[in-house]
């Protein structure tokens, strides 16, 4: 068993993983957003 390209779920899983890798981890995104909101972002 696994993810086969014959099923839509494979594409959904692949797209979700690529999005996470490309955009950064969820934790890193939370840190950036919190710093932007508190004005503690380094420029």
UniProtKB/TrEMBL annotation:
Keywords assigned: Flavoprotein
Source organism superkingdom: Archaea
Domain Acyl-CoA dehydrogenase/oxidase C-terminal: from-to ranges: 1-35
InterPro entries: AcylCo_DH-like_C (IPR036250), AcylCo_DH/oxidase_C (IPR009075)
GO molecular function, one term: oxidoreductase activity, acting on the CH-CH group of donors
Entry keyword annotation includes Flavoprotein: yes
Key word Flavoprotein present: yes
Pfam families, per database record: Acyl-CoA_dh_1
This protein's name: Acyl-CoA dehydrogenase
Organism lineage string: Archaea, Methanobacteriati, Methanobacteriota, Archaeoglobi, Archaeoglobales
